[in-house]
Amino acid sequence: MEKRVLFRSAWLPWVLIAPQLVIISVFFFWPAGQALVQSFQMQDSFGLSKEWVGLDNFKALFEDPGYLASFKTTAFFSVLVAAVGICLSLMLAIFADRIIKGAIVYKTALLLPYAVAPAVAGVLWMFMFSPSLGVVAYMLRQSGFNWNHMLNSDHAMSLIVIAAVWKQISYNFLFFLAGLQSIPKSLIEAASIDGAGPWRRFWSIQFPLLSPTTFFLLVINVVYAFFDTFAIVDSTTQGGPGRDTAILVYKVYHDGFKAMDMGGSAAQSVVLMAIVVVLTVIQFRYVEKKVQY
């Protein structure tokens, strides 16, 4: 039978959710509405004069080759961050679930990156891969690989992917570890008695039961790659070399605060928000069908 909570007063539920509604309205709906209005306007750098231009900002965006190129850059970056982050976190969670000695130290060490601010994470990896000072770049040179993310686009993309994955890996690891520990041990023991090896037990029992967690993390990581990686890109490559690592969220900032194109930047933010909403709907509409609850 379906159970429902009944409130004696009609206004009590609204009072309980009022704080959350206020926060969402102030920090999401109001800025989103402002961006939507500004995307149809053209204004000077100081916002003193405004002119209604309709869809001209959007037309200019899609006629700009640099903006269209940022779609490809963002798609490539997002797929790498989501795929590598989820796979690596799952592997680490499996190892942590089996470790007996030193498990607390191992798990704590894997959770530490989440406490680091994105800008700090970007600076950390930038220094380690610095062509002149970085210890990782030095070891790569000793092995015959000339690393320089300031001149090589592939190196720059690799750097921001590594930094973004490292920053998010703790979040993914925590959910995967909780999911693995919630699986009844009797299922694993029964499969082991039936002769199933570790690989077979993982693909036939553990991974299907982790599908809700994996789907949740897929949605979260896609949103993270589109929005929360701005500080990492800004502190490591600043969209360079050229514009080869200028993902969409960084281009919104660059065009709005550096190029002072407020209307174009607002139009870009609307497009970016629409893309993330569409991707999320697609994931819930099609990918969730593969999930076993």
TrEMBL record:
It comes from the Bacteria. Keywords: Cell inner membrane, Cell membrane, Membrane, Transmembrane, Transmembrane helix, Transport. It holds the Pfam family BPD_transp_1. It is a multi-pass membrane protein. PROSITE patterns: ABC_TM1. Residues 71-283 form the ABC transmembrane type-1 domain. InterPro entries: MetI-like, MetI-like_sf, UgpAE/MalFG_permease. One of its GO terms (biological process) is transmembrane transport. The chain crosses the membrane at residues 12-32, 75-96, 108-139, 159-180, 209-227, 266-287. GO terms for cellular component: plasma membrane. Its main location: membrane. It is found in: Cell inner membrane; Cell membrane. Belongs to the binding-protein-dependent transport system permease family. This is sn-glycerol-3-phosphate transport system permease protein UgpA.
